[in-house]
């Protein structure tokens, strides 16, 4: 471990103790050496004794900087692991980071481009348009076509800082897991590993550019979502160049109302976009918080979304998609037994779970919802409650489902902010029913057959030869099986014959011994014993050797 890492480690420990995070650990699970180490750092005092636990953690992460802030944001979505109070506090984390030196930004851009900025761009603005924990954005005009673009560049040395912080977080997570013992539901090591995969993906802007291009292509003909064009030839691991857009932040409701935006249609389109990305494309934007979404100023009566920051994207397996769709529909139809079955079939809860007990637990969560007006029910929070209930039955947390859950909560929150009367159920149910109809039934089978036609067309000429080869192989196999059976029967016949001779020899020897004890004429006794020995030799010699068939 380097001097820099040790200093960072000390800073993290000092911050944790300054906010009293050590006092949040259960006293009965805190070992003596941990208490001794805390006593040795007596000059660092808890200055937030009157602050609740969740708020202490939030303040500490804000103080530690961008990596920990993003970790707190991710952790706030793990309501299957945290209490509501803690999750609520962490959800309030704001990633507001001051910009770094523009000269460093320009230097980093030129290093990636391997050319001066003014050779490719005009009107480059040294003042950043926006600054975040990982990167910073500058505006310019592309010389080749005169279009306005934005240049997103990573912060200097951010990779090294992230890697160092992740290593430190992993070590702390392992220590915390050891302190909490086996069977704890927090599973800090697993949470840190999920976070590592997420944030390392955000550090590669070339990957983000590819994600943006793919998402844009999925919605090229859509009137609901627009993804800015990405100039892939100008994108590198530390630099991304894309079209500059003009829009209204989705959180600016006053501005949207002022231009006469159809908020009801906008909210419904948000829900449809979510389900389209998940079930049609199996490629969904998993970081759709308000800072990444704008609304176009064009034709407010028919508004569309503008999506940014495709660093975090989610995918699901075909099985997960089908189970989720069936889960949603079972919930819409109040079929709680089917919900319980689906959780077990999908492996989200243990296969040893009592289905009836789980069904009753889900029913207790869901049934009261149906007694409320539809516009007062949050489907995202219903899903959270089901996850929380499943936690009591040893739910196996799936990282891809956590991303999906977070995205659904973002979408529903935005939808209700735009149009509080939004009925997510009524908007989503027809889409899911149509999708399920397309996945099963004659039409779905015909569609799958059509998709397989090129494959079978390529294989068709080989089929007669394959049939002939298999028939020939089958004939040989039957012949070899018959030979094996004949050898087996012959072997068994010899075994039976040998056993018969050995048993007979034993009987004759016993009879000869008994006759000898009767003090009668000796020759019958000698004859029995001699015959027995002779039969034993014959039986032993005729016994087949062990062999494989």
From TrEMBL:
CDD domains: UbiB. It comes from Shewanella gelidii. The gene is ubiB. HAMAP family: UbiB. Residues 93-342 form the ABC1 atypical kinase-like domain. It comes from the Bacteria. The active site is at 287 (proton acceptor). This is Probable protein kinase UbiB. The chain crosses the membrane at residues 499-516, 522-540.
């Amino acid at each position: 471990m380097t001097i820099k890492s040790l200093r960072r480690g000390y800073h993290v420990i000092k911050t944790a103790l300054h906010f009293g995070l050590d006092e949040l650990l259960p006293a009965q699970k805190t070992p003596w050496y941990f208490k001794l180490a805390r006593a040795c750092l007596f000059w660092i005092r808890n200055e937030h004794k009157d602050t609740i636990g969740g708020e202490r953690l939030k303040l500490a992460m804000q103080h530690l900087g961008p990596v920990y802030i993003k970790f707190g944001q991710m952790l706030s979505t793990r309501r299957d692991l945290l209490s509501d109070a803690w999750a609520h506090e962490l959800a309030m984390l704001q990633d507001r980071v001051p910009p770094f030196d523009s000269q460093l930004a320009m230097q980093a851009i030129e290093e990636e481009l391997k050319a001066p900025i003014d050779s490719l761009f005009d009107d480059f603005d040294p003042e950043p348009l926006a600054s975040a924990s990982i990167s910073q954005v500058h505006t310019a005009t592309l010389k080749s076509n005169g279009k306005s673009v934005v240049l997103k560049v990573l912060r200097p040395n951010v990779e090294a800082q992230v890697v160092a912080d992740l290593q430190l977080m992993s070590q702390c997570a392992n220590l915390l897991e050891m302190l909490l013992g086996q069977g704890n539901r927090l599973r800090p090591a697993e949470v840190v590993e999920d976070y590592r995969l997420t944030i390392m993906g955000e550090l590669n802007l070339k990957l983000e550019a590819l994600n943006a291009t793919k998402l844009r292509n999925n919605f090229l003909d859509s009137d609901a979502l627009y993804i800015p064009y990405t100039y892939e030839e100008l994108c590198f691991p530390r630099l991304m160049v894309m079209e500059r857009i003009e829009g209204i932040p989705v959180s600016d409701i006053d501005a949207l109302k002022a231009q006469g935006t159809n908020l009801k249609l906008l909210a419904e389109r948000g829900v449809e976009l979510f389900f389209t990305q998940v079930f049609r494309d199996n490629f969904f934007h998993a970081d759709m918080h308000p800072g990444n979404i704008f609304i176009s100023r064009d034709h407010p009566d028919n508004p569309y979304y503008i999506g940014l920051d495709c660093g975090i994207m989610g995918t699901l397996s075909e099985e997960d998609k089908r189970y989720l769709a069936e889960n949603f529909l079972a919930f819409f139809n109040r079929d709680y037994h089917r919900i319980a079955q689906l959780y077990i079939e999908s492996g989200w809860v243990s296969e040893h779970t009592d289905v009836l007990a789980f069904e009753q637990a889900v029913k207790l969560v869901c049934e009261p919802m149906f007694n409320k007006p539809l516009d007062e029910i949050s489907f995202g929070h219903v899903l959270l409650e089901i996850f929380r209930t499943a936690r009591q039955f040893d739910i196996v947390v799936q990282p891809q489902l956590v991303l999906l859950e977070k995205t659904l909560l973002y979408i529903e929150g935005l939808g209700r902010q735009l149009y509080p009367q939004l009925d997510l159920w009524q908007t989503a149910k027809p889409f899911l029913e149509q999708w399920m109809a397309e996945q099963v039934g004659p039409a779905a089978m015909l569609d799958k057959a059509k998709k397989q036609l090129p494959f079978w067309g390529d294989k068709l000429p080989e089929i007669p030869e394959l049939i002939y080869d298999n028939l020939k192989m089958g004939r040989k196999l039957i012949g070899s099986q018959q030979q094996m059976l004949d050898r087996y029967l012959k072997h068994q016949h010899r075994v039976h014959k040998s056993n018969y001779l050995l048993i007979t020899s034993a009987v004759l020897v016993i009879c000869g011994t008994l006759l000898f004890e009767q003090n009668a004429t000796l020759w019958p006794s000698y004859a029995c014993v001699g015959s027995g020995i002779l039969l034993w030799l014959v039986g032993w010699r005729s016994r087949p050797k062990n062999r494989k068939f």
